[in-house]
Amino acid sequence: MKKEGISPERIFEPMGWSHAIKTGNTIYLAGMVGFDEHRNIVEGGFEAQTIKIFENIKLVLEAAGASLEDVVKLNIYVTDMDNIVRFREIRSRYFSPPMPASTGVEVSKLILP
Question: Is the pTM of this model over 0.85?
Answer without folding.
Answer: yes
